Description:
Elements: E1 14-17, E2 30-37, E3 40-45, E4 49-53, H1 54-57, E5 67-70, E6 74-84, E7 93-96, E8 99-101, H2 105-113, E9 122-131, H3 135-141, E10 145-148, H4 161-172, H5 174-179
Parallel strand pairs: 5-9
Antiparallel strand pairs: 1-2, 1-10, 2-3, 3-9, 4-5, 6-8, 6-9, 7-8
Amino acid sequence: MNSEPDKHPKAGDLLISEPFLQDENFIRSVVLLCEHNEEGSFGFILNKPSILHLGELVENLSFLENEVFVGGPVEQNTLHFIYFEENPLPGSVAIGKNLWWGGDFDLLIEKLKLHQILPDKVIFFIGYSGWGPQQLDEELEAKTWIVCRQEVDESTLQNTPEELWKVLLKNMGGEFKVIANYPLDPRLN
């Protein structure tokens, strides 16, 4: 398994929240980092389902039952997507092997209707997680996040949202395997 802690994240890495992070937006979160540079950082929480389904948000996609995830606390009135596909949509950004962020939304809708892209290959998010210049680096120095270099593929996301945080830490082994078993509130242990 290619997962190792590192202090210099890059697009495609996973940010795993430390076990006692109290920010309600990121408790036990796994964030897929889509961009990290001197201007800031951007990603989506992979394990925070919303109460919404895609058809409730986009009339043209009412035929889909896809659950929509909360990508983060920023601009929750916006819809974003990542998808697994060998041939990317125009305007998509590569964030892993056959893993893409964004692209031509109208073409995505057309390909979904024609079954050229399968619904289970696309994950939709309302909002996103964002950090200003150096903000994520400062949070990494404060040990708020653990960087996981595990390649994100469809099997990564087959874990339930509740289990994804634990599974990734256990897969990293060593001290991270121990962290995976920490209770949400150690005072109640």
